[in-house]
Amino acid sequence: MTFQIGHALAQLSLKLPESGLDLSSKVIYDPLRVLPAEVIYDICSLLPFESISPFIRASWHVLCIANDRPGFWKDCIRCKFPWFLEMDELLRQGALKNEQLWKGIFFWAGTMVRARRGGQ
């Protein structure tokens, strides 16, 4: 079963935004800048799935943490989707080594859950 899930996830065509665009010089004031990465993660863990993307887009500091901190998206998956037990096995196998894939998997899983709940 885990092999099938890992194979399916590896075959997913996830549209991820290109990274490398540096807009830091455009940021005038970011009140979240004073918060450490651990607090940002704690905030994300308390937010509903639908609010995580707007929260990340609202702050350059938060966006940088989400994109640059190793394991951020894996931790979000574990927090928001604790039933996704196959993720631990995939981690052990090293099936998904690209950190950016975890971001795509997070949003893919959230979209699938939301669709099954009828868009609520």
Distance between the termini: 29 Å
The counted number of beta strands is 0
Report the average pLDDT across residues. 78
Structural class: mainly alpha
The helical percent reads: 55-70%
Largest sheet: none
Q: Which outline best applies?
A: globular
**What amount of the residues lies in strands?**
under 5%
By DSSP (H or I, 4+ residues per run), the number of helices equals 7
Order of helices and strands: HHHHHHH
Low-pLDDT regions: none
Radius of gyration: 15 Å
Furnish the topology, listing elements before pairings.
Elements (H helix, E strand, L loop, with lengths): L1 H10 L25 H10 L2 H9 L2 H9 L3 H9 L5 H8 L5 H18 L4
Helix pairs in contact: 1-6, 5-7
Structural features, described:
The protein contains seven helices and no strands. The two termini are 29 Å apart. It is mainly α and 120 residues long. The model has no long low-confidence stretch (mean pLDDT 78).
Provide the descriptors you would attach to this structure in a database record.
120 residues, 0% strand, mainly alpha
Summarize the structure.
With 120 residues, this protein is mainly α.
